[in-house]
Amino acid sequence: MFSLDLLLDAVVIGVLLGCFYGAVSLGLSVSFGLLDVPHVAHPAFLVLASYAVYFLNENYAVDPLVAGLLITPIFFLLGLAAYRLYYETFEKRGSDASVRGIAFFFGIAFIIEVLIILQFGVDQRSVTASYIGKAWRLSDIRVPYRLLVAFAVATALTMLLTLYLSRTFMGRAIRAVAQDQEALRLMGANPIKVKQWAFGIATAVLGIAGALLIIVAPVDPTLDRAYIGRTFCVVVMAGLGSLGGTLVAAIILGVAESIVLTLFGASWAPAISFAMLLGILAVRPQGLFGRRS
Amino acid sequence: MTLSETQAPLLRICALTKRFGGFTALHRVSVDIRPGERFGLIGPNGSGKTTLINCISGAFRTEPGTILFRDEDITPLQPHLRTRRGIARSFQIPRPFRSMTVAENLMVALDFAAHEHVSVTQRRDTMMSILDQMGLGSKVNVLATQLSQVELRKMELARAMATHPKLLISDEAMAGLSSSEVDEVLDLLLSLASRDITIIMIEHIMQAVMRFSERVMCLDAGRIIAIGAPSEVMADKRVQEAYLGT
Amino acid sequence: MKRNDIAFWIGAVVFLAAVLVMTQVVANQYPFFAGYVILQSIALAVAWSILGGYAGYVNFGTSAFYGVGVYASVFMVSAFGAPLPLQILTGAAVGALMGLALGLLTLRMQGIFFSIATIALTIVIETTITNWRYVGGAAGIQIQRPAVTSPFDSYVQMLFFVQAVLVVLAVAISRYIQNSWIGRGLQALRDDELAAECSGVPTLRLKLLACVISGALMCAIGAPAAMYLQYADPGSAFNLNYSVTTLAMSLIGGTAHWAGPIIGAILLGTTQQVLTVTISSEVNLLVLGLMLVLFVVGAPEGIVGLINKLRGHRKEGEI
């Protein structure tokens, strides 16, 4: 049953899948990794984006990737609003706020889930596009085009965001705010504004990521629960706030999932990311490329 | 040689080193603190003062080096066990129990750190006498979050006192206070010292250090650069350089 | 203090007597079906707040403990045909061990890291159970109820009474903790762990204790559910909805006082039952989520906090 071909196949699929996991974790890498916001609702926003893409695709036959781009500005605004609310009610109060902040985002995730169920029902939904359903054959390895598309877009997205954070003024301010708020204040920038902007960017990225999510596989309203494990696993493994690390960590997760899937079957798949997350948290909470101890 | 120098030290720090990743915050620091001593600890920002305090109180683990307290090796002990042995501290940025009143803040220390089993009434009396001594008698039932800056500092010291310490470490208890408030806190510390409590005081305010300390130690970049009588240390060229920045 | 204790225990006995009388007098089975769920919510919320409220460690793993409780029963019944009390005791024992394991694993994690770890634990355990054929795997397993023992007429009535006993047990433990040195220590470490350590509080040990007690209670509370449903499957036993519901009830009620989670659970539990019956279970979850967000934003101390505010901090004179 086990063969080298099978393993190679699993690794190739795993790497592609991993890049996709990287893309859906990028936002969290900024919001949680850099800004320290306990954003448990990140995967719920992701699934929400998928449903928005589904809506546009189903009703107006918009290509999923174009739909993803179209909703990006809306998600940006959503992110600005969400951070504002979070900041005013929790971060500003300090101390005890963290407990409530976690519960707050958990509640938001729950509300999004239920709203999706009320609007679209509990059934799986998928999109149609020319590249979905076909596969590319490379000798014995069969790679679905949908994964290749996700891989390409994911890689581009990661590079764009990395460039944005390292080359633009705002990007550098965002990285600075994670290191030292006071220094930023002295430079004349308002750290709260910067953080709000960063949270907006982190949420905007979810527009595209949501499109990828529904391109790769059909989605259902409670899919966000599985992605709590995947996204947090990636971000924590990468070490908070390390974008390059995010991609590497995501590939590790993708390959691990793909291999376990091949060797032990689909029933163990949901636990992989959570088990890895648990292990990393217990053994090396600062992650593989951690920025602080 | 004075009498106190022949006594066994209360606290003996031997070749203490603390690293954070590649950064060495403390490098082979050795010092003895005598019983009843008023000890000043100075040094520029980032010189390792608070790190040293964190090592003594147990918040940080130290790799090489040992800390002896009353002839017992306390290096492997968790912070609360060190507190129960008699080491208490205040924090540079006050860390009150925010959901509690002043009284409850002290009761935590009395409940958990007090050595002997005493009745609730007795503990209440102890608490009141500490608060009165600190000038917080009227604030017993005020929430910690409603205290002013100087009151918070005093409450931190009061909470530390409630653990019945033999050694009290005051980490910049006067930072951000007005000059009259500085005098108030300094008088408090002096009155505690007169009651057989050994005190290590970290401070940036030099007049306070000079007035308070019998002995002063200056750290720079994790090393001891001077130790001795306050006036000697102040006159030391390396201390002056460290403070002016070379 | 003493007078309060007596009042509390009289209240508890009256409550249990009322429940017992109800099982003897009311013939309609529906109140017991619905009432069981509400009692279970109360017990879970109270047990949760020992770790989540007093110690401030937001546990998303209620469903992990609850599900393990259910499956402890399933195993005991399948393997030994164990009676209900033994099922519950086994649940408690397994829950205590699981709480200890969670505590040891997450000893140095704080805030969101602890919370995420508890979700992870839930999914890992659920997946393990899904792959364990002996207890039914993903498809679930049917459970036969044994004959009911007197004085009860039906098994559901008996379970209703048993859950009422568990409620009293959970509340008594939670109340004891709040009023003892354990409660003060947990509150201190919740406010500031380092300051608590430096005031002599053994924070690690207290956290472990809270994990063990909270875990044992949650598993014990889940144990009778196997008999209640006569069926168990991993998807519903480990449903994250239990985690959200329990957390919402505790926070909405307020965690500063042992009565908070009870108030929250009665309020939300009843609303849920009514909404599920009259409208739909989705709407009831939506209401739950909205209430949770509204409360953490607008009334962070919950209903208990609101009541205290109305009474104008009359408690200030006490210690």
Description:
The complex is a heterotrimer of chains A (293), B (246) and C (319). Chain A has helices at residues 4-34, 42-60, 64-91, 97-120, 145-167, 169-179, 181-186, 191-216, 223-238, 243-264, 269-283, and strands at 135-138, 141-144. With 293 residues, chain A is mainly α. Chain A has a single domain (4-122, 129-283), classed as ABC transporter involved in vitamin B12 uptake, BtuC. Chain A has a two-stranded antiparallel sheet. In chain A, a hairpin with a 2-residue loop joins strand 1 (135-138) and strand 2. The mean pLDDT of chain A is 87. Chain B has a single domain, classed as Rossmann fold. Chain B is 39% helix and 23% strand. Chain B is α/β, with parallel strands linked by helices and 246 residues long. In chain B, helix 4 crosses helix 5 (120-133) and helix 4 runs parallel beside helix 6 (149-161). The termini of chain B are far apart. The model of chain B has no long low-confidence stretch (mean pLDDT 87). Chain B is built from ten helices and ten strands. In chain B, strand 9 and strand 10 (223-228) form a beta hairpin. Chain B has helices at residues 3-6, 49-57, 79-85, 102-113, 120-133, 149-161, 179-193, 206-212, 230-235, 237-244, and strands at 11-20, 23-33, 38-42, 66-69, 72-73, 87-89, 167-171, 198-202, 215-220, 223-228. By secondary structure, chain C is mostly helical. Chain C contains 15 helices and two strands. Chain C has helices spanning 2-25, 30-54, 62-80, 84-105, 111-130, 155-179, 181-191, 193-198, 203-222, 225-229, 234-237, 240-253, 259-278, 281-298, 302-310, and strands spanning 141-142, 231-232. Chain C has a two-stranded antiparallel ribbon. Classes of the chains: A mainly alpha (293), B alpha/beta (246), C mainly alpha (319). Chains in contact: A-B, A-C, B-C.
**Strands of the largest sheet of chain C, in order across it?**
1-2
Kindly, what is the distance between the CA atoms of the first and last residues of chain A, rounded to a whole number of angstroms?
44 Å
The amount of helix of chain A comes to over 70%
Strand content of chain C: under 5%
